[in-house]
Amino acid sequence: MDKKIALKKMKIAIINYETYLKNHEYLIIYNENNNYQLRKIIFKKENFHHLTGVKLNIKKSAFYDRLLNSKLSLNDFDFDPNGTTRLKLDIIEKYHTLFFTPCNIGYYDANNYVNIKLSTSKIIGKQNISLGLRKEKNYYNPNSLLKQQMGVITHKAYPVICILKKTFDSKEYEYSYLHKDYEKVFIEDELKKLEMDLIIK
Fold this sequence. Notes:
The protein has helices spanning 3-21, 48-52, 60-68, 84-91, 184-193, and strands at residues 24-32, 35-43, 55-56, 77-78, 104-108, 122-126, 129-136, 139-146, 154-167, 172-178, 199-200.
């Protein structure tokens, strides 16, 4: 992959990020050993760079704005010599689909046999897309993106049964994904049991 192709991929990715993820909160609901769990993921402007894997020759804030406005030059970034940039860019155009389609969430295995070391506590993913999540207070931030099957970097994973989303400035959530075996009324009852008083439109 050369830099021109990388730039095209990142341009598509940042448009998707602006459209579906930036300034959004996603609530992930899953069943862990017959206990329903909820994890909050938030996406800020500054999280995007971590997902590209490129090494910058400019400030991170400038990178986002230049890329979004088609002003990023090939001299503004380089590939990481360890080869991870290319692996991230292979899937960066489509990882946002994790939040609209069937996926799994699991515990990151720091001792995974492929020797991938991340500052990550959870992984959400499917097929060959794995998004690393790092806990911050009562929510998670995306902090890594891998072209990797979840099974080799998690020691336990569970199917996601529902995803709710909202923008930061909204009080109302909406369904982003609902597993075919579950109904909305069941999800909303479980949220009440978790003492989550949400407005869902």
